C-alpha cells in the first residue's frame, strides 16, 4: 500500500515548487541550486525505496490491503477510466446517429440547413471529446492515453471535394486554436448554440414536430449554458485536480442527455423523415396540379381571344379584350410560379425559412393560387361583357351576368374565408376557429349597440328628472313667497315695501343651496346616531393602528442600535499564522518532504493500530430515547456524551466504566438537529429549527436564542466558550451566548449546509449547493445543481478559493491542526480527505505583497469494502485525528488510516439495535479507543477497546485521561493553537452526586 509513495511525493513536491511563479525563477536561475535539487531527488528516491521495503516487512500478514486486492488508487483509476470510456461510447453513438440523420435528410427538400447544422454539431462533438480525453488522461494517466492533435479530423463531409482518377480527397484537420482546458466554458456555450441551431433547423419542417426531440434538446441547452456560466468562475484553475475531477464527473450527466438525444433522433429518422417526405410529396403534387390547371386555362383564354381581339370599336369591345388579356397573363404567371414553387419545394440546397426574405416566401407559396383566382375572375368578367359587345339576346346576356355574379361572389367569399381561417390559425395557434371569432365579434357588436341604447335612455331620463326638479323648485319658491307675504299682512310686524324685496333677494341668493341639501334633509333623523357611532369606531381603529406602528418603529430602532457593536467590544481574534500545521513552511504542505522520512514510522503505527482496533466491542446500550437519534458528540474533555433525538429531547451522559445519565434536556417545541460542546466542555448548544438553546454541563438552560431564519448548522470558535457561528441560508452570523449578533458573513449564491472553522480562527470552510449560476440560470429537472467547497477569509470577508463538486455534500470537518479537511457526502458517495495548503496569492505579487490564500487539494477517497449507504457524517478518529470513521445504515462501520487511506478495521453489520443514523468518536484519549453510535430505534451504543490499567472507579478513569492530556500538552508546547484544549476537570473539584431523572420522555406531540 505504501510502496512507491516516496518518489511520487518527491516528484509532486518538485513539480509544485517549480510550477509556482515565485519559485520557478529561484529554482533555475542558479545552476548549482538546480544540481542540488536533482541530487536531493535522487536521495529521496532511495529513501522511499528503503521505506517501502520496511513497510512491507512491518505490515502484518493478515492485513486487509492484500497484494491480490487492488489498491485504492488502482480502484479510482479503473472507475475513472470506465466512466470516460462510457462517455466516449455515448459520444460516438450520437455522432453515428447524426451521420445517419444527415444521410436520411438528403431526400428532403430544404435539407441544406439541417445538414450544415448537423455537421457543425459533429465537429463540436469531436472537439469536446478531445478536451475530455485530455482531462481524463491527466487524472488517470495509467488507464487513458492522450490523443495526438494531428488525428483531429473534421467530419464535415461537405468539405470533401471531387478528385480526378478516383483519388480520395485529403482529410481536413480541425483547427485547434485555443483548444486547451481553459476553453471548456466557451466550448460548452458554443455546444449549446450548435444544439439550438440544429433544433431550429428541425423545426423548419412544419409537417412533423417531435416534442421529445424539442424537450431533450432544450433541456440540454439549458444545462450547457448553466455549466458554462458556472465554469467561468474557475478561470485559471482548469489545471487544478479538483476542477479537473469536477469536469470529469460531469460526463455522466452529459452522457445522459446525449443518450436521450440519440434515442429521439433515431425515432425521428424512423418516423419523422418519412412523414416529412410524404408531406412534401403531397405539396409538390398540389403545385403540379395547380400548374396543370393554369396551363389549361391559359389555352382556353388564348382560344377565346381569337373571337374578340379584332373588336376595337367601342368601349365594351375594348373592356372585353382588357379582361381576357389580363386573364391570360395571370394564368401564365400561375403556371410558371407553380413550377417555380415545385422546384423550390424539391430543392435540397436552398436556404431555410428564417434565412429567406418574407416577400420571396409569399411570392413562391401564395402567388400561384392567387394568380389563378385573378385569371378566372378576369375571364368571367370579360365573358360577361362579351355577351353585350356581340349583341347577344337579352336572355343570354342576363343569364350570363347573373351566373357570373353568383360564381364571382362565391369565389371571393370562399377565398376571403380561406385567408381569414389561416390568419386566425396563425394568430391563435390553432386554439380558436374563425366561427368562434365571428360569433364573438357579433356578440360584442350586439352588446355595444345595447349599451348605446341604454345610455340614450339614461340620458333621456336624466333630462326629465332635471326638468321635474326645476319645476318643483319653482313651485316651492312661489309657495314660500306667498306664505311670507300672508304672514306679514297678518301680523304687520315688518313693512312689506322694505323687507319684501330684501327677503326675495335672499331667497334668490340661497336657492341653489336649498336645492342641493333637499335630498339629505328629507332623510329620517334615526340614521344620524348609527353614523356617529360608526365614525367614532373608525377613529378608534385608526388610533390603535398608529400606536402599533409607533411601537414597531421603536423596536426596530432598538434592534438596529443593538446590532451596531463598537470595535472595542468585539472579541479579540488570534493573529494570523502563516500555516495550519506547525511542521509546514510558507506555502508548502507539511507532508511533502517530511512524509517520505516518516513512511517507516507510519507502517509501524498502522501495524500497531490494527490489533487494537480489532478489539473494539460494544460494552453498553443506552436505550433512553424513544425516537431516532439525530446527532452525537463527546465533550472535548471526554467527560460527557451529548445526544439529540427526534423525541424533542437531548441527554447528557456521564462517561465512565458504565455510562450514567447526567441530565435530560427537554425541548418544548421543535426538533433537535445538532449538539455542539464548547472548547472546555462547560457549555452545550442544541440547534432547533429556528433557534439555539444554551445549556450548562449540568443540564441547566441558560437561554433560548431565537433566529429569524432556519438554522442549518452551528459551530464554536476555536478555544472559545462564548462565541459561535450560526449558519442560516447563505449567511453566517457570529453570535455570543447572550444571543447578540457580533458580525455576519455573506456567501453569495451558496446555500450553506455546514461550516467549519480553522484552528487559527481566520477562515471559514463551508459546503453547499449553488442556488443559481452567475447569469441567473438554473439546471433542468434531471440535472443536479453544482455544489461547492468554499474557503472564506473572516478578516477580509472574501472568498479565497471555490472548489466544485458534483455529489451532494453533507458535512465538513477540520482536523485539530487544520491541515486536513474531511468532506462527507449524501447517500452512497464515500468520504474524501482534502489537504488545505497556503499558497501565495498571484494578485499579491503585482502589489508587492506576501499575502497567502488557502487552497484545497484532494488527497484521499476512502473506499469501503462494499457498496454502503452511509449514515450521517464521517468524522476523524483518534486523539490526534489519525483515523477516519464512517458508519453505514445497515450497521457496518469502516475505520481507515487518515494518511494512507488503508482500511484498518471493518465491523460487519449488526443484527441488533436497528439501523445506524450517526457516529461520534471520543477524542480525549487513545487508551482506550471509544466511540458511540445512534440508531433509528433511539438506542445509543458505546464501543470501546479494553485498557491495560483501567479500573472501575469513574474518578480514576477521568484522572487518567487528564494526566494523558497534560502529558500531550507538555509534548506539543504552550501554543494555544497546537496544543489540545485544557481539561477543566483537573483544576477543580469533581461533583460527587450524579443527577438522575425520575420521569420518562414520551413520543413527540
From TrEMBL:
SMART domains: WD40 (SM00320). Residues 965-977, 995-1005 have a biased composition (Polar residues). The chain crosses the membrane at residues 287-309, 321-342, 369-388. Keywords: Membrane, Repeat, Transmembrane, Transmembrane helix, WD repeat. GO terms for cellular component: GID complex. It comes from the Eukaryota. WD repeats lie at residues 622-663, 930-953. Residues 1-28, 519-543, 961-1005 are annotated as: Disordered. Pfam families: WD40 (PF00400). GO terms for biological process: proteasome-mediated ubiquitin-dependent protein catabolic process. InterPro entries: WD40/YVTN_repeat-like_dom_sf, WD40_repeat_dom_sf, WD40_rpt, WD_repeat-ST_regulator. PROSITE patterns: WD_REPEATS_2. This is WD40 repeat-like protein.
Amino acid at each position: 500500500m505504501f510502496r512507491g509513495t516516496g518518489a511520487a511525493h518527491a516528484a509532486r513536491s518538485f513539480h509544485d515548487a517549480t510550477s509556482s511563479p515565485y519559485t520557478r525563477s529561484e529554482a533555475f536561475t542558479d545552476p548549482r541550486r538546480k544540481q542540488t535539487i536533482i541530487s536531493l531527488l535522487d536521495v529521496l528516491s532511495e529513501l522511499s525505496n528503503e521505506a517501502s521495503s520496511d513497510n512491507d516487512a512491518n505490515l502484518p500478514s493478515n492485513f486487509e490491503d492484500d497484494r491480490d486486492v487492488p489498491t485504492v488508487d488502482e480502484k479510482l483509476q479503473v472507475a475513472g477510466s470506465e466512466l470516460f470510456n462510457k462517455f466516449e461510447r455515448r459520444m460516438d453513438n450520437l455522432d453515428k446517429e447524426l451521420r445517419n440523420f444527415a444521410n436520411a435528410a438528403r431526400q428532403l427538400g430544404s435539407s441544406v440547413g439541417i445538414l450544415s447544422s448537423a455537421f457543425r454539431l459533429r465537429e463540436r462533438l469531436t472537439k469536446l471529446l478531445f478536451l475530455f480525453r485530455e482531462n481524463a488522461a491527466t487524472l488517470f494517466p495509467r488507464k487513458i492515453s492522450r490523443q495526438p492533435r494531428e488525428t483531429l479530423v473534421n467530419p464535415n463531409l461537405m468539405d470533401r471535394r471531387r478528385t480526378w482518377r478516383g483519388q480520395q480527397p485529403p482529410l481536413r484537420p480541425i483547427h485547434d486554436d485555443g483548444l486547451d482546458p481553459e476553453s471548456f466554458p466557451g466550448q460548452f456555450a458554443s455546444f449549446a448554440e450548435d444544439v439550438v441551431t440544429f433544433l431550429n433547423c428541425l423545426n423548419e419542417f412544419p409537417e412533423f414536430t417531435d416534442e421529445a426531440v424539442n424537450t431533450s434538446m432544450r433541456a440540454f441547452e439549458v444545462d450547457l449554458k448553466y455549466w458554462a456560466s458556472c465554469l467561468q468562475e474557475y478561470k485559471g484553475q482548469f489545471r487544478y485536480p479538483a476542477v479537473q475531477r469536477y469536469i470529469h464527473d460531469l460526463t455522466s450527466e452529459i452522457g445522459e442527455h446525449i443518450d436521450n438525444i440519440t434515442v429521439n433522433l433515431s425515432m425521428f429518422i424512423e418516423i419523422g423523415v418519412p412523414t416529412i417526405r410524404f408531406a412534401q410529396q403531397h405539396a409538390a403534387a398540389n403545385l403540379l396540379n395547380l400548374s396543370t390547371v393554369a396551363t389549361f386555362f391559359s389555352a382556353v383564354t388564348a382560344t377565346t381571344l381569337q373571337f374578340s381581339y379584332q373588336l376595337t370599336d367601342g368601349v365594351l369591345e375594348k373592356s372585353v379584350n382588357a379582361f381576357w388579356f389580363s386573364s391570360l397573363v395571370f394564368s401564365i404567371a400561375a403556371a410558371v410560379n407553380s413550377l417555380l414553387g415545385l422546384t423550390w419545394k424539391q430543392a435540397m440546397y436552398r436556404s431555410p425559412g428564417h434565412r429567406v426574405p418574407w416577400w420571396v416566401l409569399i411570392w413562391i407559396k401564395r402567388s400561384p393560387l392567387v394568380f389563378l383566382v385573378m385569371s378566372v375572375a378576369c375571364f368571367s368578367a370579360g365573358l360577361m361583357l362579351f355577351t353585350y359587345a356581340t349583341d347577344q339576346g337579352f336572355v343570354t346576356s342576363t343569364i350570363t351576368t347573373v351566373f357570373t355574379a353568383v360564381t364571382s361572389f362565391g369565389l371571393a367569399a370562399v377565398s376571403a374565408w380561406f385567408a381569414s381561417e389561416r390568419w386566425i390559425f396563425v394568430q391563435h395557434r390553432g386554439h380558436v376557429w374563425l366561427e368562434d371569432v365571428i360569433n364573438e365579434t357579433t356578440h360584442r357588436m350586439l352588446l355595444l349597440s345595447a349599451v348605446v341604447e341604454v345610455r340614450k335612455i339614461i340620458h333621456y331620463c336624466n333630462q326629465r328628472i332635471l326638468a321635474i326638479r326645476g319645476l318643483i323648485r319653482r313651485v316651492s319658491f312661489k309657495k314660500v313667497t306667498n306664505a311670507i307675504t300672508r304672514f306679514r299682512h297678518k301680523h304687520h310686524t315688518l313693512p312689506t315695501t322694505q323687507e319684501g324685496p330684501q327677503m326675495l333677494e335672499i331667497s334668490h341668493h340661497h336657492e341653489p343651496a336649498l336645492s342641493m341639501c333637499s335630498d339629505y334633509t328629507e332623510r329620517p333623523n334615526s340614521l344620524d346616531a348609527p353614523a356617529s357611532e360608526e365614525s367614532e369606531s373608525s377613529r378608534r381603529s385608526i388610533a390603535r393602528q398608529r400606536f402599533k406602528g409607533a411601537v414597531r418603529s421603536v423596536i426596530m430602532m432598538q434592534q438596529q442600535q443593538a446590532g451596531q457593536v463598537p470595535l472595542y467590544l468585539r472579541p479579540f481574534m488570534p493573529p494570523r499564522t502563516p500555516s495550519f500545521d506547525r511542521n509546514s513552511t510558507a506555502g508548502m504542505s507539511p507532508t511533502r518532504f517530511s512524509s517520505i522520512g516518516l513512511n517507516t514510522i507510519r507502517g509501524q503505527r498502522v501495524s500497531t493500530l490494527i490489533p487494537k482496533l480489532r478489539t473494539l466491542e460494544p460494552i453498553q446500550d443506552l436505550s433512553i430515547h424513544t425516537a431516532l437519534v439525530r446527532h452525537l458528540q463527546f465533550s472535548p474533555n471526554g467527560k460527557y456524551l451529548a445526544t439529540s433525538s427526534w423525541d424533542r429531547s437531548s441527554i447528557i451522559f456521564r462517561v465512565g466504566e458504565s455510562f450514567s445519565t447526567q441530565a435530560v434536556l427537554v425541548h418544548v417545541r421543535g426538533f433537535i438537529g445538532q449538539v455542539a460542546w464548547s472548547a472546555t466542555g462547560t457549555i452545550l448548544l442544541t440547534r432547533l429549527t429556528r433557534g439555539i438553546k444554551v445549556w450548562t454541563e449540568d443540564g441547566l438552560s441558560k437561554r433560548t436564542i431565537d433566529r429569524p431564519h432556519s438554522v442549518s448548522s452551528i459551530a464554536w470558535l476555536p478555544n472559545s466558550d462564548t462565541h459561535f457561528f450560526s449558519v442560516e441560508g447563505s449567511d453566517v452570523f457570529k453570535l455570543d451566548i447572550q444571543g447578540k449578533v457580533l458580525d455576519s458573513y455573506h456567501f453569495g449564491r451558496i446555500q450553506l449546509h455546514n461550516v467549519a472553522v480553522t484552528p487559527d480562527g481566520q477562515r471559514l470552510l463551508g459546503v453547499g449547493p449553488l442556488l443559481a449560476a452567475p447569469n441567473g440560470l438554473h439546471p433542468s429537472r434531471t440535472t443536479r445543481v453544482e455544489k461547492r467547497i468554499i474557503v472564506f477569509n473572516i478578516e477580509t470577508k472574501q472568498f479565497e478559493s471555490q472548489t466544485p463538486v458534483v455529489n451532494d455534500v453533507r458535512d465538513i470537518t477540520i482536523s485539530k491542526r487544520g491541515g486536513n479537511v474531511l468532506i462527507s457526502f449524501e447517500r452512497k458517495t464515500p468520504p474524501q480527505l482534502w489537504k488545505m495548503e497556503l499558497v501565495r496569492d498571484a494578485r499579491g505579487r503585482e502589489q508587492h505583497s506576501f499575502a497567502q490564500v488557502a487552497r484545497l487539494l484532494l488527497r484521499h477517497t476512502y473506499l469501503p469494502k462494499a457498496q454502503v449507504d452511509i449514515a450521517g457524517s464521517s468524522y476523524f478518529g483518534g486523539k490526534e485525528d489519525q483515523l477516519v470513521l464512517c458508519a453505514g445504515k445497515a450497521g457496518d462501520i469502516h475505520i481507515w488510516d487518515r494518511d494512507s487511506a488503508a482500511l484498518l478495521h471493518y465491523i460487519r453489520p449488526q443484527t441488533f439495535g436497528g439501523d445506524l443514523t450517526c457516529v461520534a468518536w471520543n477524542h480525549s484519549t487513545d487508551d482506550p479507543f471509544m466511540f458511540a453510535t445512534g440508531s433509528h430505534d433511539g438506542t445509543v451504543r458505546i464501543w470501546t477497546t479494553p485498557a491495560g490499567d483501567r479500573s472501575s472507579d469513574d474518578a480514576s478513569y477521568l484522572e487518567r485521561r487528564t494526566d494523558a492530556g497534560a502529558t500531550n500538552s507538555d509534548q506539543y508546547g504552550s501554543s494555544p493553537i497546537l496544543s489540545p484544549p485544557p481539561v477543566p476537570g483537573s483544576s477543580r473539584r469533581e461533583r460527587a452526586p450524579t443527577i438522575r431523572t425520575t420521569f420518562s420522555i414520551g413520543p413527540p406531540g
